[in-house]
Design goal:
Blueprint: H1 21-34, H2 38-53
Helix pairs in contact: 1-2
């Protein structure tokens, strides 16, 4: 059975590997929605939106 890889044969990486906090928040939100974690999604959205409104970067900006 052959194994398949996401990498090209030359071993080059695609992109620069930089992911923004907004992109992470979007992916988490989609995961929670797709898997029907509705209460967790609601809590995540309220906490994430308050972090972005204050200009912080999530848990690192809390005291």
């Amino acid at each position: 059975m052959a194994r398949y890889s996401n990498r090209s044969k030359s071993g080059e990486r695609i992109g620069k590997g930089k992911v923004t906090p907004v992109q992470v928040a979007y992916l988490v939100d989609r995961y929670l929605c797709d898997n029907r974690f509705l209460e967790t999604r609601s809590l995540f959205r309220s906490e994430a939106s308050s972090s972005y409104e204050s200009g912080g970067e999530g848990a690192n900006s809390r005291n």
